[in-house]
Amino acid sequence: MVDAKLIDQFKELKQLYAEHAENQSEEDFKQKNKLRAELLDLFFALKPYIRKQTKLQWYEPAYNYAITGNLEYIESVRDDLTDIINKLEHDT
Questions:
Q1: How far is CA 66 from each of CA 3, 4, 28, 81, rounded to the nearest angstrom?
Q2: CA atoms of 44 and 34, how far apart (whole Å)
Q3: What is the reported pTM?
Q4: At what angle do helices 71-91 and 59-68 cross, to 10 degrees?
Q5: What is the CA radius of gyration of the chain?
Q6: What CA–CA distance (Å, rounded) separates 33 from 26?
Q7: How far apart are CA 66 and CA 64, in angstroms?
Q8: Rounded Cα–Cα distance for residues 91 and 85 (Å)
Q9: Rounded to whole angstroms, how far apart are CA atoms 78 and 27?
Q10: Quick one: which of 92, 12, 78 has its CA closest to 46?
């Protein structure tokens, strides 16, 4: 059985990537840096679970490039997170 808190953390990570994608066109570096820090912290906390569930062959570079603000990688990471969340919710 999957812990509901884990699913919530994955949903939070997906939401942070969505906010990060929206903020790429803005000049607010303070906000961008805050989001990057939050993304890194949550990514490293969830990394063992991501490794087990991801469909991305090179998941770690993809997630890291997404953190740098690359919109293509952000989109692929968000898709991957959607798949992981769906798998986890199905397992509950």
A1: 26, 25, 18, 12
A2: 16
A3: 0.89
A4: 130
A5: 13
A6: 12
A7: 5
A8: 10
A9: 23
A10: 12
The amino acid sitting at 49 is: Y
Indicate the residue type of 84: I
Token readout for 47 is 């990394």
* DSSP line for 1-51: ---HHHHHHHHHHHHHHHHHHHGGGS--HHHHHHHHHHHHHHHHHHHHHHH
Per-residue tens of pLDDT for the chain, all 92 residues = 568 899 999 999 999 999 988 888 777 788 888 889 999 999 999 999 999 999 999 999 999 999 998 999 999 999 999 999 999 998 86
- What's the rounded Cα separation, in Å, for the pair 78 and 18? 8
